Amino acid sequence: MAHKPSAPVANPIEQTGADYLQTHRIPELFHNLSASLVYNKP
């Protein structure tokens, strides 16, 4: 699933999706952790 950076991308929509995931991965992860802490209190 991982694309080589030097490889040409055939589908620009795929590239946009990859860029979106790369940009939002950390905030999404943080949000998910925060939500799990809030909703699953010990």
TrEMBL record:
In terms of domain of life, where is this protein from?
Answer: Eukaryota
UniProt xrefs under CDD domains: DD_EFCAB10
Please name the InterPro entries in this protein's record: DD_EFCAB10
Under which name does UniProt file this protein?
Answer: Uncharacterized protein
